[in-house]
# Entry
Amino acid sequence: MKKKIYQIKSVAQAHQMLNLPKPLHPLISILHHAELQLNTDFENETFTMDLYLIGLKDGELGSFLYGRNSYDYDCGTMLFISPNQVFSPQNLQISNDSKGWTILFHPDLIRKSKLGQTIGQYTYFSYESHEALHISESEKQFITQLAKTIEIEYSQNIDRHTQELIIINIESILKYCKRYYDRQFYTRTNLNKDFIIRFEQYLKDYFTSDQLTLKGIPTVQQCGAALAMSGHYLSDLLKSETGKSAKEYIDLKLVEKAKNRLLNTDYSISEIVYDLGFEYPNHFSKLFKSKTGLSPSEYRNLN
# Structure
């Protein structure tokens, strides 16, 4: 029997499911974990939301299934979930002195703003659960103050400035968390180098086998899965360490393999295109020229 997935469509519905009073603002709310009376009927159930979620886990125990892994609550982490992702709370325990909080907001809050157009650049909304952000005590306090400012804005009389100021503070939280993630990449550089070596080996094995012809060009998501991480996290890790994204790595590997085929075989360009996993020759030619400044035929004739 297929397991039921509960869909949370609004901030008001989230409040209702948590036995909270009606929200003060229809599109955003901040939940203080110490004040929550969790409904055990929903433990171990599966949920999806039409909302964004930004959470600071500080003082909670238990776990939170998200993607293929789970967050442990015995240390301070930050959680980011975008609409339509699936998650499941597991055996949660929240102490009365918990300092954790969760911001829930509907996409309509930011839809007409600049943030509505740029929120996709905060790729950590698509990270796997074990790629959580760990922040210091001072960073927790700073981010919490931004969350409190948002709460003050929607708790007082709402005027024509309210929404803009709320969005400014949401964007500030996201920008600072991007900085903290960059720092986390930097401080884990030795571990990251191991991932880079494994990624390069994965590409080497893939490109020296017949998988290109049989399965096509590997996607960033596929490469991430091979290393037990999300594609977004892999790409951001590589960008932080090497200046190149995962897509750039894959493209450069394709171009290098194409160069070898062009110089060391008599295969036609169409045959090489097929062997490299491209469906359309013009896509290959465009990529090759962007990396070398020459078309495939010009490169072959030049040498």
Notes: The first helix runs from residue 11 to 17. The chain has a mean pLDDT of 83.
